[in-house]
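An instance as discussed:

___
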Amino acid sequence: MPHEPQPQSPDELDAEAVRTWSSLALAALGRAREDIDAINVYPVADADTGTNLYLTAESADRALDDAFAQVTEGTAAASLAHAVRAWAHGALVGARGNSGTILAQLLRGVADVLGEPGATGTGAAGTREAGTGPGGPGERSSGALLAQALTRAAEEAYAAVSHPVEGTMLTVAGAAARAGEAAGAAAGTAADVARAAYDGARAALAETPGQLAALGRAGVVDAGGCGLVAVLGALWQALSGQEPAAEPVRGRAVPVPQTSDPCEQEEDGPAYEVIYLLEASDAAVGELRERLDGLGDSLVVVGGDGLWNVHVHVDDPGAAVEAGVVAGRPYRIRITHFGDERRRGRGERAQRAVVAVVPGEGLAGLCGEAGATAVLVRSGEVPAAPELLDAIRRAHAREVVLLPGGAELRAAAAAAAEQARAEGVRVAVIPTRSAVQGLAALAVHDPDGSFDEDVVAMTAAAGATRYGELAVAERQSFTSAGICQAGDVLGLIDGDVAVIGSGLAETAEAVLERMLGSGGELVTLVLGPEVPDAVAERLEAYVQHGHLAVDTVTYRGGRYSAPLLIGVE
Protein backbone atom coordinates (compact mmCIF):
# COMPACT_ATOMS: atom_id res chain seq x y z
CA MET A 1 0.00 0.00 0.00
CA PRO A 2 1.51 3.39 -0.98
CA HIS A 3 2.79 5.50 1.88
CA GLU A 4 0.79 8.69 2.51
CA PRO A 5 3.29 11.58 2.85
CA GLN A 6 3.17 13.21 6.28
CA PRO A 7 3.84 16.91 6.97
CA GLN A 8 7.16 17.63 8.66
CA SER A 9 8.43 20.52 10.74
CA PRO A 10 11.04 22.64 8.89
CA ASP A 11 13.92 21.11 10.85
CA GLU A 12 12.71 17.59 11.46
CA LEU A 13 15.01 15.23 9.63
CA ASP A 14 14.04 11.74 10.76
CA ALA A 15 12.98 8.36 9.38
CA GLU A 16 9.47 9.57 8.58
CA ALA A 17 10.92 12.52 6.66
CA VAL A 18 12.99 10.13 4.55
CA ARG A 19 9.93 7.98 3.90
CA THR A 20 7.93 11.02 2.83
CA TRP A 21 10.79 12.21 0.62
CA SER A 22 10.92 8.81 -1.07
CA SER A 23 7.17 8.72 -1.73
CA LEU A 24 7.10 12.25 -3.13
CA ALA A 25 10.19 11.64 -5.28
CA LEU A 26 8.64 8.51 -6.77
CA ALA A 27 5.43 10.39 -7.53
CA ALA A 28 7.34 13.32 -9.07
CA LEU A 29 9.41 11.02 -11.28
CA GLY A 30 6.25 9.21 -12.31
CA ARG A 31 4.68 12.47 -13.47
CA ALA A 32 7.83 13.59 -15.30
CA ARG A 33 8.77 10.18 -16.67
CA GLU A 34 7.58 10.63 -20.25
CA ASP A 35 8.86 14.21 -20.47
CA ILE A 36 12.29 13.13 -19.29
CA ASP A 37 12.35 10.18 -21.68
CA ALA A 38 11.53 12.59 -24.51
CA ILE A 39 14.61 14.78 -23.92
CA ASN A 40 17.07 11.91 -23.39
CA VAL A 41 19.89 12.49 -25.88
CA TYR A 42 23.05 11.86 -23.82
CA PRO A 43 25.03 9.64 -23.45
CA VAL A 44 22.74 7.50 -25.66
CA ALA A 45 19.55 8.79 -27.27
CA ASP A 46 17.47 5.79 -26.19
CA ALA A 47 14.53 7.59 -24.57
CA ASP A 48 14.68 5.75 -21.26
CA THR A 49 16.25 8.09 -18.68
CA GLY A 50 12.91 8.97 -17.09
CA THR A 51 11.92 5.32 -16.99
CA ASN A 52 15.26 4.25 -15.51
CA LEU A 53 15.10 6.91 -12.80
CA TYR A 54 11.51 5.96 -11.98
CA LEU A 55 12.30 2.23 -11.75
CA THR A 56 15.34 2.93 -9.54
CA ALA A 57 13.27 5.14 -7.24
CA GLU A 58 10.52 2.51 -7.21
CA SER A 59 12.98 -0.16 -6.05
CA ALA A 60 14.32 2.19 -3.36
CA ASP A 61 10.83 3.10 -2.17
CA ARG A 62 9.79 -0.55 -2.02
CA ALA A 63 12.84 -1.41 0.10
CA LEU A 64 12.06 1.48 2.44
CA ASP A 65 8.45 0.35 2.83
CA ASP A 66 9.69 -3.18 3.61
CA ALA A 67 12.06 -1.79 6.25
CA PHE A 68 9.20 0.12 7.93
CA ALA A 69 6.99 -2.97 7.76
CA GLN A 70 9.62 -5.03 9.57
CA VAL A 71 9.98 -2.39 12.26
CA THR A 72 6.20 -2.14 12.66
CA GLU A 73 6.11 -5.84 13.51
CA GLY A 74 8.43 -5.11 16.45
CA THR A 75 8.22 -2.48 19.13
CA ALA A 76 10.86 0.12 18.26
CA ALA A 77 10.31 2.98 15.82
CA ALA A 78 12.38 3.14 12.65
CA SER A 79 15.60 5.12 13.07
CA LEU A 80 16.93 7.63 10.58
CA ALA A 81 19.99 5.46 9.97
CA HIS A 82 17.87 2.36 9.36
CA ALA A 83 15.63 4.21 6.93
CA VAL A 84 18.33 5.83 4.77
CA ARG A 85 20.38 2.64 4.58
CA ALA A 86 17.38 0.60 3.45
CA TRP A 87 16.49 3.29 0.92
CA ALA A 88 20.00 3.42 -0.53
CA HIS A 89 20.26 -0.37 -0.65
CA GLY A 90 16.97 -0.61 -2.53
CA ALA A 91 18.24 1.88 -5.10
CA LEU A 92 21.53 -0.01 -5.47
CA VAL A 93 19.99 -3.41 -6.21
CA GLY A 94 17.31 -1.94 -8.47
CA ALA A 95 19.33 0.70 -10.34
CA ARG A 96 18.56 0.94 -14.04
CA GLY A 97 20.70 2.57 -16.71
CA ASN A 98 23.34 5.25 -16.39
CA SER A 99 21.09 7.78 -14.63
CA GLY A 100 19.56 5.27 -12.24
CA THR A 101 23.00 4.01 -11.25
CA ILE A 102 24.15 7.56 -10.48
CA LEU A 103 20.95 8.21 -8.49
CA ALA A 104 21.69 5.10 -6.44
CA GLN A 105 25.15 6.43 -5.59
CA LEU A 106 23.72 9.83 -4.67
CA LEU A 107 21.38 8.12 -2.19
CA ARG A 108 24.28 6.09 -0.86
CA GLY A 109 26.18 9.33 -0.20
CA VAL A 110 23.19 10.68 1.71
CA ALA A 111 23.02 7.44 3.70
CA ASP A 112 26.74 7.56 4.50
CA VAL A 113 26.13 10.80 6.43
CA LEU A 114 22.60 10.42 7.78
CA GLY A 115 23.27 6.78 8.61
CA GLU A 116 26.27 7.51 10.84
CA PRO A 117 26.00 6.34 14.46
CA GLY A 118 24.38 9.07 16.52
CA ALA A 119 23.29 11.10 13.51
CA THR A 120 19.86 12.61 13.96
CA GLY A 121 18.11 15.53 12.42
CA THR A 122 15.67 16.89 14.98
CA GLY A 123 16.13 20.32 16.46
CA ALA A 124 17.86 23.42 15.17
CA ALA A 125 19.98 23.85 18.27
CA GLY A 126 22.22 21.03 17.24
CA THR A 127 22.54 17.29 17.69
CA ARG A 128 25.29 15.30 19.28
CA GLU A 129 27.02 12.25 17.85
CA ALA A 130 27.80 9.45 20.25
CA GLY A 131 31.00 10.06 22.16
CA THR A 132 31.22 13.84 21.67
CA GLY A 133 30.70 16.63 24.12
CA PRO A 134 28.84 19.93 23.80
CA GLY A 135 30.30 22.10 21.11
CA GLY A 136 32.39 19.21 19.79
CA PRO A 137 32.66 18.08 16.21
CA GLY A 138 29.57 15.88 16.53
CA GLU A 139 27.23 18.77 17.28
CA ARG A 140 25.37 19.66 14.08
CA SER A 141 22.04 21.22 13.25
CA SER A 142 19.67 19.39 10.97
CA GLY A 143 20.40 21.91 8.24
CA ALA A 144 24.15 21.38 8.51
CA LEU A 145 23.66 17.61 8.60
CA LEU A 146 21.57 17.65 5.42
CA ALA A 147 24.04 19.97 3.69
CA GLN A 148 26.86 17.59 4.54
CA ALA A 149 24.81 14.66 3.21
CA LEU A 150 24.17 16.41 -0.12
CA THR A 151 27.85 17.25 -0.45
CA ARG A 152 28.88 13.66 0.25
CA ALA A 153 26.32 12.48 -2.29
CA ALA A 154 27.76 14.66 -5.04
CA GLU A 155 31.34 13.65 -4.19
CA GLU A 156 30.54 9.93 -4.28
CA ALA A 157 28.60 10.25 -7.53
CA TYR A 158 31.53 12.00 -9.23
CA ALA A 159 33.89 9.32 -7.93
CA ALA A 160 31.67 6.52 -9.22
CA VAL A 161 31.78 7.75 -12.83
CA SER A 162 34.93 6.75 -14.68
CA HIS A 163 35.09 9.92 -16.80
CA PRO A 164 32.78 12.63 -15.38
CA VAL A 165 31.30 15.02 -17.93
CA GLU A 166 29.96 18.47 -17.08
CA GLY A 167 26.52 19.48 -18.25
CA THR A 168 25.07 16.25 -16.88
CA MET A 169 23.34 14.97 -13.76
CA LEU A 170 26.68 15.25 -11.94
CA THR A 171 26.83 19.00 -12.60
CA VAL A 172 23.34 19.44 -11.21
CA ALA A 173 24.22 17.40 -8.10
CA GLY A 174 27.36 19.46 -7.50
CA ALA A 175 25.47 22.75 -7.80
CA ALA A 176 22.77 21.53 -5.42
CA ALA A 177 25.41 20.53 -2.87
CA ARG A 178 27.17 23.90 -3.01
CA ALA A 179 23.90 25.80 -2.59
CA GLY A 180 22.92 23.54 0.29
CA GLU A 181 26.28 24.02 2.00
CA ALA A 182 25.88 27.81 1.80
CA ALA A 183 22.42 27.62 3.39
CA GLY A 184 23.69 25.26 6.08
CA ALA A 185 26.62 27.53 6.89
CA ALA A 186 24.11 30.37 7.38
CA ALA A 187 22.40 28.32 10.12
CA GLY A 188 19.45 27.48 7.90
CA THR A 189 16.96 24.78 8.81
CA ALA A 190 16.86 21.48 6.95
CA ALA A 191 13.99 22.90 4.88
CA ASP A 192 16.11 25.98 4.08
CA VAL A 193 18.96 23.76 2.92
CA ALA A 194 16.60 21.65 0.83
CA ARG A 195 15.11 24.72 -0.83
CA ALA A 196 18.53 26.15 -1.58
CA ALA A 197 19.69 22.84 -3.06
CA TYR A 198 16.54 22.64 -5.19
CA ASP A 199 16.95 26.19 -6.48
CA GLY A 200 20.66 25.62 -7.15
CA ALA A 201 19.90 22.44 -9.05
CA ARG A 202 17.24 24.16 -11.19
CA ALA A 203 19.64 26.96 -12.08
CA ALA A 204 22.39 24.49 -12.98
CA LEU A 205 20.00 22.41 -15.06
CA ALA A 206 19.04 25.42 -17.15
CA GLU A 207 22.73 25.92 -18.02
CA THR A 208 23.40 22.35 -19.17
CA PRO A 209 22.68 22.95 -22.90
CA GLY A 210 25.57 25.40 -22.97
CA GLN A 211 27.92 22.91 -21.31
CA LEU A 212 27.30 19.81 -23.40
CA ALA A 213 27.23 20.04 -27.20
CA ALA A 214 24.76 17.17 -27.65
CA LEU A 215 22.21 18.99 -25.49
CA GLY A 216 22.79 22.30 -27.22
CA ARG A 217 22.27 20.81 -30.67
CA ALA A 218 19.01 19.17 -29.58
CA GLY A 219 17.79 22.20 -27.65
CA VAL A 220 17.17 20.27 -24.43
CA VAL A 221 18.42 20.23 -20.86
CA ASP A 222 20.07 17.13 -19.41
CA ALA A 223 17.50 14.40 -18.82
CA GLY A 224 19.22 12.92 -15.76
CA GLY A 225 19.61 16.37 -14.23
CA CYS A 226 15.93 17.02 -14.84
CA GLY A 227 15.11 13.89 -12.84
CA LEU A 228 17.42 14.94 -10.02
CA VAL A 229 15.67 18.32 -9.83
CA ALA A 230 12.40 16.44 -9.34
CA VAL A 231 13.96 14.40 -6.51
CA LEU A 232 15.29 17.54 -4.79
CA GLY A 233 11.94 19.28 -5.19
CA ALA A 234 10.41 16.31 -3.38
CA LEU A 235 12.95 16.73 -0.56
CA TRP A 236 11.97 20.37 -0.06
CA GLN A 237 8.30 19.46 -0.16
CA ALA A 238 8.82 16.67 2.39
CA LEU A 239 10.48 19.05 4.86
CA SER A 240 8.40 22.18 4.27
CA GLY A 241 5.00 20.81 3.38
CA GLN A 242 4.96 23.15 0.36
CA GLU A 243 4.80 22.00 -3.22
CA PRO A 244 7.59 23.27 -5.48
CA ALA A 245 6.64 26.64 -6.93
CA ALA A 246 7.41 25.47 -10.45
CA GLU A 247 7.80 22.20 -12.24
CA PRO A 248 11.40 21.09 -12.90
CA VAL A 249 12.95 22.94 -15.82
CA ARG A 250 12.35 20.94 -18.97
CA GLY A 251 13.77 21.11 -22.44
CA ARG A 252 11.85 20.87 -25.64
CA ALA A 253 11.08 17.33 -26.71
CA VAL A 254 12.64 17.56 -30.15
CA PRO A 255 14.35 14.87 -32.24
CA VAL A 256 18.13 14.83 -32.40
CA PRO A 257 19.38 16.39 -35.66
CA GLN A 258 20.38 13.67 -38.13
CA THR A 259 23.62 13.52 -40.07
CA SER A 260 23.58 13.08 -43.83
CA ASP A 261 23.85 9.35 -43.22
CA PRO A 262 21.16 8.27 -40.74
CA CYS A 263 23.12 5.14 -39.87
CA GLU A 264 26.15 7.17 -38.84
CA GLN A 265 24.65 8.31 -35.55
CA GLU A 266 22.91 5.01 -34.89
CA GLU A 267 26.20 3.13 -34.96
CA ASP A 268 28.23 5.73 -33.06
CA GLY A 269 29.49 4.39 -29.74
CA PRO A 270 29.43 0.90 -28.22
CA ALA A 271 26.65 -1.48 -29.26
CA TYR A 272 25.65 -2.90 -25.85
CA GLU A 273 24.73 -1.77 -22.36
CA VAL A 274 25.80 -4.25 -19.67
CA ILE A 275 24.55 -4.02 -16.08
CA TYR A 276 25.02 -6.46 -13.22
CA LEU A 277 25.19 -6.68 -9.46
CA LEU A 278 28.56 -7.81 -8.17
CA GLU A 279 29.77 -9.27 -4.90
CA ALA A 280 33.44 -8.33 -4.66
CA SER A 281 36.08 -6.70 -2.48
CA ASP A 282 37.09 -3.04 -2.79
CA ALA A 283 40.48 -4.04 -4.19
CA ALA A 284 38.92 -6.29 -6.83
CA VAL A 285 36.52 -3.54 -7.88
CA GLY A 286 39.42 -1.15 -8.34
CA GLU A 287 40.98 -3.58 -10.82
CA LEU A 288 37.58 -4.12 -12.44
CA ARG A 289 37.21 -0.40 -13.10
CA GLU A 290 40.52 -0.34 -14.97
CA ARG A 291 39.61 -3.39 -17.02
CA LEU A 292 36.13 -2.15 -17.98
CA ASP A 293 37.44 1.33 -18.73
CA GLY A 294 39.51 -0.20 -21.50
CA LEU A 295 36.52 -2.06 -22.94
CA GLY A 296 34.01 0.76 -23.41
CA ASP A 297 32.56 3.96 -22.01
CA SER A 298 29.83 5.32 -19.70
CA LEU A 299 31.39 3.27 -16.91
CA VAL A 300 29.68 3.74 -13.54
CA VAL A 301 30.43 1.47 -10.58
CA VAL A 302 28.44 2.23 -7.43
CA GLY A 303 27.98 0.64 -4.03
CA GLY A 304 30.37 -0.61 -1.39
CA ASP A 305 30.67 -2.97 1.57
CA GLY A 306 30.99 -5.95 -0.75
CA LEU A 307 28.00 -5.24 -3.02
CA TRP A 308 28.25 -3.19 -6.22
CA ASN A 309 26.19 -2.23 -9.23
CA VAL A 310 28.21 -2.16 -12.46
CA HIS A 311 27.10 -0.27 -15.58
CA VAL A 312 29.09 0.04 -18.82
CA HIS A 313 28.58 0.48 -22.58
CA VAL A 314 30.71 -1.96 -24.63
CA ASP A 315 30.98 -3.73 -27.96
CA ASP A 316 31.88 -7.04 -26.30
CA PRO A 317 29.33 -7.83 -23.57
CA GLY A 318 30.93 -11.18 -22.88
CA ALA A 319 34.23 -9.52 -21.97
CA ALA A 320 32.41 -7.12 -19.63
CA VAL A 321 30.73 -9.99 -17.80
CA GLU A 322 33.97 -11.98 -17.77
CA ALA A 323 35.67 -9.02 -16.05
CA GLY A 324 33.01 -9.24 -13.35
CA VAL A 325 33.64 -12.98 -12.93
CA VAL A 326 37.34 -12.28 -12.40
CA ALA A 327 36.50 -9.64 -9.78
CA GLY A 328 33.87 -11.61 -7.86
CA ARG A 329 30.35 -12.98 -8.34
CA PRO A 330 28.20 -11.14 -10.89
CA TYR A 331 24.45 -11.79 -11.00
CA ARG A 332 21.22 -10.19 -12.26
CA ILE A 333 23.08 -9.62 -15.52
CA ARG A 334 21.24 -7.48 -18.09
CA ILE A 335 22.52 -6.96 -21.64
CA THR A 336 20.76 -4.51 -23.97
CA HIS A 337 21.58 -3.99 -27.62
CA PHE A 338 21.63 -0.29 -28.54
CA GLY A 339 20.90 -0.58 -32.27
CA ASP A 340 17.14 -0.42 -31.92
CA GLU A 341 17.37 1.67 -28.76
CA ARG A 342 18.98 4.57 -30.63
CA ARG A 343 16.35 4.48 -33.35
CA ARG A 344 13.53 4.47 -30.83
CA GLY A 345 15.12 7.31 -28.89
CA ARG A 346 14.74 9.54 -31.95
CA GLY A 347 11.04 8.94 -32.43
CA GLU A 348 8.11 6.81 -31.39
CA ARG A 349 8.34 3.48 -29.65
CA ALA A 350 9.09 0.51 -31.87
CA GLN A 351 6.02 -1.35 -33.03
CA ARG A 352 7.27 -4.76 -31.92
CA ALA A 353 10.13 -6.31 -29.97
CA VAL A 354 11.20 -9.70 -28.65
CA VAL A 355 12.40 -10.40 -25.10
CA ALA A 356 14.28 -13.68 -24.64
CA VAL A 357 15.53 -15.35 -21.46
CA VAL A 358 18.79 -17.16 -22.23
CA PRO A 359 21.34 -19.16 -20.17
CA GLY A 360 24.61 -17.99 -21.68
CA GLU A 361 26.54 -14.92 -22.77
CA GLY A 362 26.93 -16.22 -26.31
CA LEU A 363 23.20 -16.82 -26.59
CA ALA A 364 22.54 -13.34 -25.24
CA GLY A 365 24.80 -11.94 -27.94
CA LEU A 366 22.98 -13.93 -30.63
CA CYS A 367 19.63 -12.62 -29.44
CA GLY A 368 20.99 -9.08 -29.32
CA GLU A 369 22.26 -9.32 -32.89
CA ALA A 370 18.77 -10.47 -33.91
CA GLY A 371 17.34 -7.34 -32.29
CA ALA A 372 15.94 -9.01 -29.18
CA THR A 373 16.32 -7.83 -25.59
CA ALA A 374 18.11 -10.61 -23.74
CA VAL A 375 17.71 -11.53 -20.07
CA LEU A 376 20.85 -13.47 -19.16
CA VAL A 377 20.52 -16.04 -16.39
CA ARG A 378 23.11 -18.16 -14.62
CA SER A 379 22.68 -21.89 -14.21
CA GLY A 380 20.10 -22.59 -11.51
CA GLU A 381 18.78 -19.02 -11.40
CA VAL A 382 15.14 -18.25 -12.13
CA PRO A 383 14.32 -14.61 -12.97
CA ALA A 384 11.35 -13.19 -11.08
CA ALA A 385 8.43 -11.34 -12.65
CA PRO A 386 9.86 -7.84 -11.90
CA GLU A 387 13.04 -8.68 -13.81
CA LEU A 388 11.06 -9.86 -16.83
CA LEU A 389 8.81 -6.80 -16.61
CA ASP A 390 11.89 -4.58 -16.60
CA ALA A 391 13.10 -6.28 -19.79
CA ILE A 392 9.70 -5.71 -21.43
CA ARG A 393 9.88 -2.04 -20.49
CA ARG A 394 13.44 -1.75 -21.81
CA ALA A 395 12.28 -3.14 -25.13
CA HIS A 396 10.39 0.16 -25.71
CA ALA A 397 7.75 -1.36 -27.96
CA ARG A 398 3.98 -1.31 -28.29
CA GLU A 399 3.99 -5.07 -28.88
CA VAL A 400 6.32 -7.57 -27.20
CA VAL A 401 6.84 -11.29 -27.75
CA LEU A 402 8.27 -12.91 -24.60
CA LEU A 403 10.31 -16.11 -24.86
CA PRO A 404 10.77 -17.43 -21.27
CA GLY A 405 12.99 -20.37 -22.25
CA GLY A 406 11.91 -22.70 -19.46
CA ALA A 407 8.78 -24.24 -17.97
CA GLU A 408 9.79 -22.96 -14.53
CA LEU A 409 9.47 -19.39 -15.82
CA ARG A 410 5.89 -19.61 -17.02
CA ALA A 411 4.33 -18.14 -13.88
CA ALA A 412 6.80 -15.25 -13.74
CA ALA A 413 6.37 -14.60 -17.48
CA ALA A 414 2.58 -14.57 -17.15
CA ALA A 415 2.72 -12.13 -14.22
CA ALA A 416 5.13 -9.81 -16.06
CA ALA A 417 2.98 -9.90 -19.18
CA GLU A 418 -0.16 -9.08 -17.19
CA GLN A 419 1.50 -6.05 -15.61
CA ALA A 420 2.87 -4.88 -18.96
CA ARG A 421 -0.59 -5.15 -20.50
CA ALA A 422 -1.91 -2.94 -17.71
CA GLU A 423 0.70 -0.38 -18.81
CA GLY A 424 -0.61 -0.45 -22.38
CA VAL A 425 1.83 -2.92 -23.95
CA ARG A 426 0.46 -5.81 -26.00
CA VAL A 427 2.34 -8.92 -24.85
CA ALA A 428 2.30 -12.52 -26.07
CA VAL A 429 4.13 -15.24 -24.13
CA ILE A 430 5.35 -18.12 -26.28
CA PRO A 431 5.83 -21.13 -23.96
CA THR A 432 9.39 -21.98 -24.98
CA ARG A 433 10.97 -24.59 -22.72
CA SER A 434 14.53 -24.28 -23.96
CA ALA A 435 16.83 -21.68 -25.46
CA VAL A 436 16.97 -23.64 -28.74
CA GLN A 437 13.20 -23.28 -29.07
CA GLY A 438 13.67 -19.56 -28.58
CA LEU A 439 16.29 -19.47 -31.36
CA ALA A 440 13.87 -21.29 -33.66
CA ALA A 441 11.15 -18.77 -32.86
CA LEU A 442 13.51 -15.84 -33.46
CA ALA A 443 14.50 -17.29 -36.84
CA VAL A 444 10.95 -16.84 -38.18
CA HIS A 445 10.17 -13.58 -36.36
CA ASP A 446 8.66 -11.03 -38.76
CA PRO A 447 8.53 -7.56 -37.17
CA ASP A 448 6.75 -6.12 -40.20
CA GLY A 449 3.89 -8.64 -40.31
CA SER A 450 0.77 -8.63 -38.18
CA PHE A 451 1.26 -9.33 -34.48
CA ASP A 452 -1.08 -12.33 -34.42
CA GLU A 453 0.50 -13.94 -37.50
CA ASP A 454 3.98 -13.36 -36.10
CA VAL A 455 3.07 -14.96 -32.77
CA VAL A 456 1.47 -17.96 -34.51
CA ALA A 457 4.54 -18.49 -36.71
CA MET A 458 6.97 -18.16 -33.80
CA THR A 459 4.88 -20.48 -31.63
CA ALA A 460 4.73 -23.08 -34.40
CA ALA A 461 8.51 -22.90 -34.94
CA ALA A 462 9.19 -23.31 -31.22
CA GLY A 463 6.69 -26.15 -30.90
CA ALA A 464 8.20 -27.99 -33.88
CA THR A 465 11.64 -27.96 -32.25
CA ARG A 466 12.52 -30.92 -30.04
CA TYR A 467 15.10 -29.96 -27.46
CA GLY A 468 17.85 -31.87 -25.75
CA GLU A 469 20.46 -31.02 -23.15
CA LEU A 470 23.55 -32.62 -21.69
CA ALA A 471 24.35 -32.18 -18.02
CA VAL A 472 26.72 -33.76 -15.51
CA ALA A 473 25.19 -35.55 -12.52
CA GLU A 474 26.25 -34.05 -9.20
CA ARG A 475 25.30 -37.11 -7.09
CA GLN A 476 23.76 -40.55 -7.30
CA SER A 477 20.10 -40.33 -8.24
CA PHE A 478 17.17 -42.21 -9.73
CA THR A 479 16.21 -41.01 -13.22
CA SER A 480 13.76 -42.05 -15.91
CA ALA A 481 16.70 -43.82 -17.63
CA GLY A 482 17.92 -45.63 -14.51
CA ILE A 483 20.29 -44.89 -11.65
CA CYS A 484 23.06 -42.39 -12.33
CA GLN A 485 26.25 -41.83 -10.37
CA ALA A 486 28.03 -38.57 -9.62
CA GLY A 487 30.01 -37.54 -12.70
CA ASP A 488 27.82 -39.37 -15.20
CA VAL A 489 26.76 -37.48 -18.30
CA LEU A 490 22.99 -37.17 -18.53
CA GLY A 491 21.28 -36.82 -21.89
CA LEU A 492 17.87 -35.15 -21.56
CA ILE A 493 15.24 -35.08 -24.30
CA ASP A 494 12.27 -32.74 -23.88
CA GLY A 495 13.14 -32.37 -20.21
CA ASP A 496 13.44 -36.07 -19.28
CA VAL A 497 16.64 -38.08 -18.81
CA ALA A 498 16.83 -40.47 -21.78
CA VAL A 499 20.50 -41.50 -21.79
CA ILE A 500 23.13 -42.01 -19.09
CA GLY A 501 26.71 -42.10 -20.38
CA SER A 502 30.31 -41.64 -19.34
CA GLY A 503 31.50 -39.25 -22.06
CA LEU A 504 30.06 -36.06 -23.48
CA ALA A 505 30.48 -36.85 -27.17
CA GLU A 506 29.24 -40.45 -26.91
CA THR A 507 26.20 -39.40 -24.89
CA ALA A 508 25.44 -36.57 -27.31
CA GLU A 509 25.52 -39.02 -30.24
CA ALA A 510 23.04 -41.29 -28.45
CA VAL A 511 20.75 -38.34 -27.79
CA LEU A 512 20.97 -37.18 -31.41
CA GLU A 513 20.16 -40.65 -32.69
CA ARG A 514 17.00 -40.77 -30.60
CA MET A 515 15.94 -37.23 -31.50
CA LEU A 516 16.51 -37.75 -35.24
CA GLY A 517 14.70 -41.09 -35.17
CA SER A 518 11.41 -39.27 -35.70
CA GLY A 519 12.83 -37.08 -38.45
CA GLY A 520 14.30 -33.62 -38.75
CA GLU A 521 15.75 -31.11 -41.16
CA LEU A 522 18.03 -28.96 -39.00
CA VAL A 523 20.14 -29.71 -35.92
CA THR A 524 21.22 -26.80 -33.70
CA LEU A 525 24.15 -27.35 -31.33
CA VAL A 526 24.92 -24.85 -28.57
CA LEU A 527 28.27 -25.62 -26.92
CA GLY A 528 29.14 -24.69 -23.35
CA PRO A 529 32.32 -22.77 -22.48
CA GLU A 530 34.37 -25.86 -21.54
CA VAL A 531 33.40 -28.00 -24.55
CA PRO A 532 36.19 -28.23 -27.16
CA ASP A 533 35.55 -27.57 -30.85
CA ALA A 534 36.47 -31.20 -31.55
CA VAL A 535 33.18 -32.29 -29.96
CA ALA A 536 31.20 -30.07 -32.33
CA GLU A 537 33.16 -31.39 -35.32
CA ARG A 538 32.49 -34.97 -34.23
CA LEU A 539 28.77 -34.37 -33.80
CA GLU A 540 28.49 -32.56 -37.13
CA ALA A 541 30.20 -35.49 -38.84
CA TYR A 542 27.92 -37.93 -37.02
CA VAL A 543 24.80 -36.14 -38.28
CA GLN A 544 26.16 -35.81 -41.82
CA HIS A 545 27.11 -39.50 -41.99
CA GLY A 546 23.83 -40.90 -40.70
CA HIS A 547 21.37 -38.27 -41.92
CA LEU A 548 22.45 -36.82 -45.26
CA ALA A 549 19.45 -34.51 -45.64
CA VAL A 550 19.90 -32.88 -42.22
CA ASP A 551 21.86 -29.63 -41.86
CA THR A 552 23.78 -28.68 -38.71
CA VAL A 553 24.45 -25.24 -37.24
CA THR A 554 26.71 -24.69 -34.22
CA TYR A 555 26.87 -21.78 -31.77
CA ARG A 556 28.91 -21.04 -28.67
CA GLY A 557 26.63 -20.60 -25.65
CA GLY A 558 29.31 -18.82 -23.65
CA ARG A 559 29.65 -18.57 -19.90
CA TYR A 560 26.68 -19.82 -17.85
CA SER A 561 25.39 -22.07 -20.64
CA ALA A 562 24.90 -25.84 -20.24
CA PRO A 563 27.63 -28.19 -21.57
CA LEU A 564 25.50 -28.83 -24.67
CA LEU A 565 22.06 -27.84 -25.93
CA ILE A 566 20.55 -29.62 -28.92
CA GLY A 567 17.62 -28.59 -31.06
CA VAL A 568 16.06 -30.63 -33.86
CA GLU A 569 13.61 -28.96 -36.23
Remarks:
- Residues 270 and 314 are 5 Å apart (CA to CA).
- The two ends are 48 Å apart (CA to CA).
- The chain has 20 helices and 18 strands.
